[in-house]
C-alpha cells in the first residue's frame, strides 16, 4: 500500500471543510480565457520571479515564484558519500528530496513524506542527473532539497527549474541548465503552466483527451531529460504537448539566465585595479 | 512487431536414451551407497555407522575403490588445465579477480598474462599501473586453470596466444556439467562462427577471426562492425545452445553443429519457442545416435 | 534493478546488432520474447495471473475488499497497487534492496490507472459514500530478466480479466440502517470490463535506435528508456522517461509513435488468449512448474 508501512495509521480525525462545500462549481471551465487572464492554447507561462542565494548556510540555493506557486531549493555538497556499499565509485551520487509544506495545498498534508512526494523526488532526480557532470565528483554526493511552500500548480516543472538554478549557484559543474514546463490537455485545447485548479479540475467531462504532461528540458543541448504524463491523451496531442512544453521552457530561459548572472555578479569580487 | 502469447504447457524433457527414473546410479543426500567397508570415501559422501552415504544429489562414480558422488547441478569445480571463460570483476594490485562460475572468484596474476607484443620480462611497477589498460572490470577473457589454491579458488593464466581478452561476440551461460570434456575447447565451426566451450559453462560465440594478429598478444579487440550474416549465425548458435541446455543435452562441437543444422528450417527468433526447441533437440539427438551407431 | 556487467566489446556488438535490426537473440527491434500467460493460479485471490516473458516472471494477485469510498469520489471504488520485489528474484532485492524499485513500479502503476476509462470505478461502488470495493492489486516479481513494466502490465490486465467480485445486496433493516449481504453462490459474481486497461510498452534507446522488450544486457547498453502505457484504442495514459540519460525531442516523437503502434498491437493477442483460456473451461493448470 502506498503509505508509510512502519507506522500504524489512526483513523483520520479531521477533514477539510472544502469537502462539505456545496459543490464548488467547476472552477476550471474549458472555454474562454483562463481565470488569471492568460490565454489558452498559447504558450502563456506565468511570469516567474527567481533569486539565488536565499539560504546562506547552503552551498547553493534558489527561490522561485510563478504565480502563486512558491518553492525554494537548497543544494548541499559535494561531500564524501555516506553510502559506501555502492560499487560504482567513479561517479558522484545525486540525491534529491522534494517535500510539500503541510499548508502548501488546499488540504493539509502530513509531514511524513508520502509516496507522491517520493515519486516527485525520483522524477526530479531523473530530470537533473543528465545535466550534471557527476563523473567530475567521484566518491561524493550532492544533495538537492526542494521545499514547496505554496502549491499553485505545475510544481514539478518549477521544482526542476529551481533545483537546476540552485545547483548552478552551488558551483556544481553542469552541461546545461534544466528547465521545466507543464501543460494540461483538455479535449482539443490545452493550457500551459496550469494552476492548481486547472491541474486538478475535471475539465469538460465529455472529452476523452484529458491529460497532464510535465517536461524537463536542457535548452542549449536540445535534449529532454525528464518526461512524465498521466491521464488519457492521444499520441498526437502528446507529441504536440512535448513541443509546446519545449517552447515554454525557452520562454523562461532568459529569466533564469539573468537571475544566475546577477547572482554571479554579486558574488564576484570587485575587479582589481592593476 | 511480433508478440507471441500462449498458455503455458507442462514441459517434458526430450530424451531418447533411457529415462532418468531407471537409472540406479543417481542418489540423494542420505542414501546409503554401500555398507561394504572396503571402499574409500570420495567427494560428496560421508560415513555414517560404517555405511557410505551420499551427501549431495547426483551421480555415483566409482574409480577402483574410491566412490564419489558428482553433483549434477553445481558451480564449477575447476581442475588444472581446464579452459574457462570468465569476466573480470576487480582490478587489484598485481592481479585481477575473475568471475568464473566457481564458488570463489578466480585469480589472474599479472605475471601469468602475456604482455602486449609478446615481450618476455619481469613485470615492473609500471606494468602494475597500466593493468587497467589490458583488462578492465567487465571484460571477458578466456584462460586456462593454472593451479587450484587450497581453499578451492582457481589461479588462471593466459600465457598462450589462443587465450586472452575476448572481443565482440556473445556469452551464453549454461550448466558446467553439460560441457563435454574434450581435447580442444576451441572450435571454428563450419557454419561460419567460432566457439569457446569453457569448462565452467560459459560459452563464447564469436565471428571466426581472419588473419590472426600475433603482435597484439591477445589484448587487441576489434570494434569493427560485424557482417549481418555472421551475426545471424552467432544468434542462431546462441539460441541452439540455450535449447540444448534446456533439454540437458551434452554440449560439444558435434552436438552444437547438429543442432544448428536441425534449426535451419526455422527463423532464428523462433528457436526459443518451446515446441520448436523440442523439435530441434529431438532431431539433434537422433543425428547424434546415428553418428554413434 | 538487477544489473549485469557487459564489457565494452560486447556493448559494441549489441549496439551494431540493433542498428542492423538483428538482436543477439535473433529478434528484430520491435519483437517481444515469447510470453506465457495463465490466469487463476492462486486460489485464495479473487483474480490472479502469472506471466513469464523470457526469464522474467511476474505473479499478480487481486483481492477485493469492502472499504469506504474516498471523500472526493463518493460514488467510486478504487484500486491499490503494491509491488513486491522479493529476494527470490535476485539477491540484490534482499532486505530493503527491492523497496525503492517496488515504490517506483507501484507509483507508475497509479499513474497508468489515473484516468476515467481504464477501469470503470463507478461499478465498484456499493452504496454511495458508504461502501465500495477496493481492489488490492499485489504484484510479485518472481524472476527478473529485463522488461518488468511490460510483463507486469500484461499480468495485471490478465488478472483483472479473471477477477470475480461476489455480488452484494444491500437491505434496509427496520431501524433504517443498511445491511450488506454477500451472495453465497460462487457463480453469482461481477466481472470487470478490461477492454480499456492499458498495457505498458518500454522502449529502450540503444544507440540511435530503440528496442522493445530489452534484455538485461541490452538495458545495460541503454542510457534512457521511455515507458508508454497504451490502451487498445491507442490512447496514451502515461508516459515516463526512465534512466539517467536524456533524449532528443525527435527521438521522443519516434518512440511514442512506436510505443503506440506496438502497444495497440499487444492487446489483440492478449485478449484473444484470455478469451481462449476462458472458453477452455477447467483446464489443468500448469501453475509454477512450467
UniProtKB/TrEMBL annotation, chain A:
Residues 45-173 form the Exoribonuclease phosphorolytic domain. Keywords: Cytoplasm, Exosome, Nucleus, RNA-binding, rRNA processing. Component of the RNA exosome complex. Non-catalytic component of the RNA exosome complex which has 3'->5' exoribonuclease activity and participates in a multitude of cellular RNA processing and degradation events. It comes from the Eukaryota. Pfam families: RNase_PH (PF01138). One of its GO terms (cellular component) is nuclear exosome (RNase complex). One of its GO terms (molecular function) is RNA binding. Belongs to the RNase PH family. One of its GO terms (biological process) is U4 snRNA 3'-end processing. It is found in: Cytoplasm; Nucleus, Nucleolus. InterPro entries: ExoRNase_PH_dom1, ExoRNase_PH_dom2_sf, PNPase/RNase_PH_dom_sf, Ribosomal_Su5_D2-typ_SF, RNase_PH. This is Exosome complex component MTR3.
TrEMBL record, chain B:
SUPFAM superfamilies: Eukaryotic type KH-domain (KH-domain type I) (SSF54791), Nucleic acid-binding proteins (SSF50249), Ribosomal L27 protein-like (SSF110324). It is found in: Cytoplasm; Nucleus, Nucleolus. Keywords: Cytoplasm, Exosome, Nucleus, Phosphoprotein, RNA-binding, rRNA processing. Component of the RNA exosome core complex (Exo-9), composed of EXOSC1, EXOSC2, EXOSC3, EXOSC4, EXOSC5, EXOSC6, EXOSC7, EXOSC8 and EXOSC9; within the complex interacts with EXOSC4 and EXOSC7. The catalytically inactive RNA exosome core complex (Exo-9) associates with the catalytic subunit EXOSC10/RRP6. Exo-9 may associate with DIS3 to form the nucleolar exosome complex, or DIS3L to form the cytoplasmic exosome complex. Exo-9 is formed by a hexameric base ring consisting of the heterodimers EXOSC4-EXOSC9, EXOSC5-EXOSC8 and EXOSC6-EXOSC7, and a cap ring consisting of EXOSC1, EXOSC2 and EXOSC3. This is Exosome complex component RRP4. It comes from Hippocampus comes. Residues 26-63 form the Exosome complex component N-terminal domain. Coiled coil: none annotated. It comes from the Eukaryota. One of its GO terms (molecular function) is RNA binding. Belongs to the RRP4 family. One of its GO terms (biological process) is TRAMP-dependent tRNA surveillance pathway. InterPro entries: Exosome_cplx_N_dom, Exosome_RNA_bind1/RRP40/RRP4, KH_dom_type_1, KH_dom_type_1_sf, NA-bd_OB-fold, S1_RRP4. One of its GO terms (cellular component) is nuclear exosome (RNase complex). PANTHER family: EXOSOME COMPLEX COMPONENT RRP4, PNAS-3 RELATED. Its main location: cytoplasm. Pfam families: ECR1_N, KH_6, S1_RRP4. Residues 75-147 form the RRP4 S1 domain. Residues 169-208 form the K Homology domain.
Automatic annotation (TrEMBL), chain C:
InterPro entries: ExoRNase_PH_dom1, ExoRNase_PH_dom2, ExoRNase_PH_dom2_sf, Exosome_comp_Rrp42_subfam, PNPase/RNase_PH_dom_sf, Ribosomal_Su5_D2-typ_SF. GO terms for cellular component: cytoplasmic exosome (RNase complex); nuclear exosome (RNase complex); nucleolus. GO terms for molecular function: mRNA 3'-UTR AU-rich region binding. CDD domains: RNase_PH_RRP42. Pfam families: RNase_PH, RNase_PH_C. SUPFAM superfamilies: Ribonuclease PH domain 2-like, Ribosomal protein S5 domain 2-like. Residues 32-166, 196-261 form the Exoribonuclease phosphorolytic domain. It is found in: Cytoplasm; Nucleus, Nucleolus. Keywords: Acetylation, Cytoplasm, Exosome, Nucleus, RNA-binding, rRNA processing. Component of the RNA exosome core complex (Exo-9), composed of EXOSC1, EXOSC2, EXOSC3, EXOSC4, EXOSC5, EXOSC6, EXOSC7, EXOSC8 and EXOSC9; within the complex interacts with EXOSC2 and EXOSC4. The catalytically inactive RNA exosome core complex (Exo-9) associates with the catalytic subunit EXOSC10/RRP6. Exo-9 may associate with DIS3 to form the nucleolar exosome complex, or DIS3L to form the cytoplasmic exosome complex. Exo-9 is formed by a hexameric base ring consisting of the heterodimers EXOSC4-EXOSC9, EXOSC5-EXOSC8 and EXOSC6-EXOSC7, and a cap ring consisting of EXOSC1, EXOSC2 and EXOSC3. Belongs to the RNase PH family. This is Exosome component 7.
Amino acid at each position: 500500500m502506498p503509505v508509510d508501512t512502519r507506522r500504524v495509521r489512526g483513523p483520520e480525525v479531521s477533514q477539510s471543510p472544502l469537502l462539505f462545500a456545496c459543490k464548488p462549481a467547476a472552477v476550471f471551465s474549458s472555454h474562454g480565457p483562463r481565470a488569471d487572464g492568460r490565454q489558452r492554447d498559447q504558450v502563456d507561462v506565468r511570469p516567474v520571479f527567481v533569486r539565488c542565494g536565499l539560504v546562506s548556510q547552503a552551498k547553493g540555493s534558489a527561490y522561485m515564484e510563478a504565480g502563486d506557486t512558491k518553492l525554494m531549493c537548497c543544494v548541499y555538497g559535494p561531500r564524501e558519500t555516506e553510502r559506501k556499499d555502492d560499487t560504482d565509485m567513479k561517479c558522484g551520487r545525486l540525491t534529491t528530496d522534494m517535500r510539500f509544506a503541510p499548508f502548501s495545498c488546499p488540504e493539509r498534508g502530513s509531514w511524513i513524506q508520502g509516496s507522491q512526494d517520493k515519486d516527485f523526488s525520483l522524477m526530479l532526480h531523473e530530470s537533473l542527473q543528465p545535466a550534471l557532470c557527476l563523473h567530475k565528483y567521484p566518491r561524493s554526493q550532492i544533495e538537492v532539497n526542494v521545499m514547496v511552500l505554496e502549491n499553485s500548480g505545475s510544481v514539478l516543472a518549477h521544482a526542476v527549474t529551481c533545483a537546476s538554478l540552485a545547483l548552478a549557484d552551488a558551483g556544481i559543474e553542469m552541461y546545461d541548465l534544466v528547465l521545466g514546463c507543464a501543460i494540461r490537455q483538455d479535449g482539443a485545447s490545452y493550457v500551459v503552466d496550469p494552476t492548481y485548479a486547472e491541474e486538478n479540475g475535471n475539465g469538460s467531462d465529455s472529452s476523452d483527451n484529458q491529460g497532464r504532461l510535465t517536461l524537463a528540458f536542457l535548452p542549449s543541448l536540445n535534449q529532454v531529460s525528464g518526461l512524465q504524463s498521466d491521464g488519457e491523451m492521444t499520441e498526437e496531442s502528446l507529441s504536440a504537448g512535448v513541443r509546446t512544453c519545449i517552447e515554454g521552457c525557452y520562454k523562461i530561459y532568459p529569466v533564469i539566465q539573468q537571475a544566475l548572472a546577477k547572482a554571479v555578479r554579486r558574488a564576484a569580487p570587485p575587479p582589481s585595479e592593476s | 512487431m511480433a508478440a507471441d502469447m500462449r498458455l503455458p504447457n507442462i514441459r517434458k524433457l526430450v530424451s531418447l536414451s533411457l529415462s532418468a527414473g531407471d537409472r540406479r546410479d543417481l542418489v540423494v543426500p542420505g542414501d546409503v551407497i554401500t555398507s561394504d567397508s572396503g571402499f574409500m570415501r570420495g567427494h560428496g559422501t560421508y560415513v555414517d555407522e560404517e555405511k557410505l552415504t551420499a551427501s549431495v544429489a547426483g551421480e555415483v562414480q566409482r574409480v577402483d575403490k574410491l566412490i564419489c558422488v558428482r553433483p549434477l547441478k553445481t558451480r564449477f569445480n575447476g581442475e588444472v588445465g581446464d579452459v574457462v571463460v570468465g569476466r573480470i570483476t576487480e582490478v587489484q594490485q598485481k592481479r585481477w579477480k575473475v568471475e568464473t562460475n566457481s564458488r570463489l572468484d578466480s585469480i589472474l596474476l599479472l605475471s601469468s598474462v602475456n604482455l602486449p607484443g609478446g615481450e618476455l620480462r619481469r613485470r615492473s611497477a609500471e606494468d602494475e599501473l597500466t593493468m587497467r589498460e589490458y583488462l578492465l572490470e567487465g571484460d571477458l577473457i578466456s584462460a586456462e586453470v593454472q593451479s587450484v589454491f587450497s581453499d578451492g579458488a582457481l589461479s588462471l593464466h593466459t600465457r598462450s596466444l589462443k587465450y586472452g581478452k575476448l572481443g565482440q561476440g556473445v556469452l551464453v551461460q549454461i550448466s558446467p556439467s553439460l560441457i563435454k570434456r574434450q581435447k580442444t575447447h576451441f572450435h571454428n565451426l563450419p557454419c561460419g562462427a567460432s566457439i569457446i566451450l569453457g569448462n565452467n559453462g560459459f560459452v563464447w560465440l564469436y565471428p571466426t577471426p581472419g588473419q590472426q594478429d600475433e603482435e597484439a598478444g591477445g589484448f587487441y579487440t576489434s570494434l569493427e562492425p560485424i557482417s549481418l550474416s555472421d551475426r545471424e549465425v552467432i544468434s542462431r548458435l546462441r539460441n541452439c545452445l540455450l535449447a540444448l541446455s534446456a533439454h540437458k543435452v551434452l554440449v560439444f562441437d558435434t552436438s552444437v553443429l547438429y543442432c544448428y543444422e536441425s534449426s535451419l528450417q526455422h527463423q532464428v527468433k523462433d528457436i526459443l519457442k518451446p515446441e520448436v526447441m523440442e523439435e530441434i533437440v529431438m532431431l539433434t539427438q537422433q543425428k547424434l545416435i546415428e553418428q554413434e551407431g | 534493478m538487477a544489473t549485469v556487467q557487459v564489457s565494452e566489446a560486447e556493448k559494441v556488438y549489441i549496439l551494431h546488432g540493433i542498428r542492423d535490426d538483428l538482436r543477439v537473440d535473433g529478434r528484430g527491434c520491435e519483437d517481444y520474447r515469447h510470453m506465457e500467460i495463465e490466469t487463476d493460479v492462486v486460489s485464495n485471490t479473487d483474480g490472479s495471473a502469472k506471466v513469464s516473458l523470457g526469464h522474467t516472471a511476474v505473479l499478480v494477485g487481486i483481492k477485493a475488499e469492502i472499504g469506504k469510498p474516498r471523500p472526493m469520489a463518493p460514488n467510486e471504488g478504487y484500486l491499490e497497487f503494491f509491488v513486491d520485489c522479493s529476494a527470490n528474484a535476485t539477491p540484490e532485492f534482499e532486505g530493503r534492496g527491492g523497496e525503492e524499485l517496488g515504490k517506483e513500479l507501484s507509483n507508475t502503476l497509479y499513474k497508468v490507472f489515473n484516468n476515467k476509462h481504464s477501469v470503470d470505478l463507478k461499478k465498484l461502488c456499493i452504496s454511495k459514500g458508504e461502501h465500495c470495493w477496493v481492489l488490492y492489486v499485489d504484484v510479485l516479481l518472481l524472476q527478473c530478466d529485463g522488461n518488468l513494466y511490460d510483463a507486469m502490465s500484461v499480468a495485471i490486465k490478465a488478472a483483472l480479466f479473471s477477477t470475480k467480485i461476489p455480488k452484494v445486496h444491500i437491505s434496509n433493516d427496520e431501524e433504517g440502517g443498511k445491511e450488506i449481504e454477500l451472495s453465497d453462490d460462487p457463480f453469482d459474481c461481477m466481472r470487470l470490463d478490461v477492454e480499456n486497461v492499458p498495457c505498458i510498452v518500454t522502449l529502450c534507446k540503444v544507440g540511435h535506435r530503440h528496442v522493445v522488450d530489452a534484455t538485461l544486457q541490452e538495458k545495460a547498453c541503454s542510457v534512457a528508456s521511455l515507458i508508454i502505457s497504451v490502451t487498445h484504442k491507442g490512447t496514451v495514459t502515461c508516459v515516463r522517461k526512465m534512466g539517467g540519460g536524456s533524449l532528443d525531442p525527435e527521438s521522443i516523437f519516434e518512440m511514442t509513435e512506436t510505443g503506440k503502434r506496438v502497444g495497440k498491437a499487444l492487446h489483440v493477442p492478449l485478449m484473444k488468449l484470455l478469451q481462449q483460456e476462458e472458453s477452455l473451461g477447467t483446464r489443468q493448470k500448469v501453475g509454477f512448474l512450467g
